[in-house]
Amino acid sequence: MDRLKVIVVGAGMGGLTAALALRQAGYEIEIFDRVPALLPAGAGVSLWSNGVKVLDRLGLGSALAAAGGRMERVCYRDQHGQLLTDFSLEPLVQAVGERPYPVTRTELQRLLLDALGPETVQLNAECVGIEQDDHCATALFADGRRARGDLVVAADGTHSALRAVVLGHVQPRRYVGYVNWNGLVEHGDGLPPADTWTTFVGAHQRAALMPVGGERFYFFFDVPLPEGAPPHPAGPRAELLQHFAGWAEPVQALIARLDPARTNRIAIHDVDPLPVLVRGRLALLGDAAHSMPPDLGQGGCQAMEDAWVLAHQLLTNNLGVPDALQRYQHARQQRTTEIVLRARKRSEMTHGHDPQKTRGWYAELAREDGSNILGGIIKTVLGGPL
């Protein structure tokens, strides 16, 4: 296929990874984002081996290993601190040929922008529509700008404006039933080991710490709440102390150490699997294509897989852009649908949609030697394009 020009709408993880993969494939790219400044959304990314493999192939493996966390073990405890299971991740590494590297979103964004050049992204560009014909596609922006290319990649996130263009209708987001708080905290006394992803579970809630670079943990708390439940007027620390009263000392230490001004509070939503991912010369990618709860840690990884597959389909196709995009859809739709539904099912089990199933999960964790959990992760990783 001749040298193409690609318009990428959205400069998050998926958009930047797609832009890098497409540039390395030899295509001209332009990237647009509606925000006035490129600030990462959220604190950390649980970047599993399938996402890491994509970054390896794009030449960022060594930089990611230096920036990410060295996560050696997984540990589950109940809300009182009693051990449920603790196991090594080495069998995962041996089975799939790559480590996971949890990383802060700031560091991941920096790695991608350094590879692309920060001036690549045009800001204050809210995409409001697409025009296309047999030869090109044009992204239309709220301020009157137009960007014309051979195709448009819609990586504009879970609130995607271009999803409706592909579908022909608005697909509403769906509240999955819980609120998540997340942020970063330094390692220290009273917190779990620095090489271990530690999760405390009980009462349909979770509190977790995952090692990222810079001697820090990425932390998150989950609490099932009614849709639209307002935040505590005294801020996140007061709210978390209320929800996690009586939990184990490391959870109390975490709440005491977190920075309320840098703690995100997010009502978690997903989107039902989409019947199509492309229309003509327009392709959805990342959360725009498959918005899911974070319960499998696969949102960012699936966006990276999308990016790799899209670049590969364009490189290995001589039948034109629409045909290549149809092949991209065929390669991604079944996989991402399966992962969206698995993430939803796990979210429901973890957060007490059926309290009996959640109690059963706690009991399973107490019998777990790591093989079942690792088996699921290995299956997910090996199901990817690399």
Structure, explained:
This protein is α/β, with parallel strands linked by helices. It has one domain: FAD/NAD(P)-binding domain, CATH 3.50.50. Helix content is 38%, strand content 25%. The chain has 13 helices and 18 strands. The strands form four sheets. It has a seven-stranded mixed sheet with strand order 5-4-13-14-15-12-16, with helices on both faces. A six-stranded mixed sheet has the order 7-2-1-11-18-17. Strands 8-9-10 form a three-stranded antiparallel sheet, with no helix packed on it. Helix 1 packs parallel to helix 10. The two termini are 23 Å apart.
The gist of it:
The protein is of the alpha/beta class and 386 residues long.
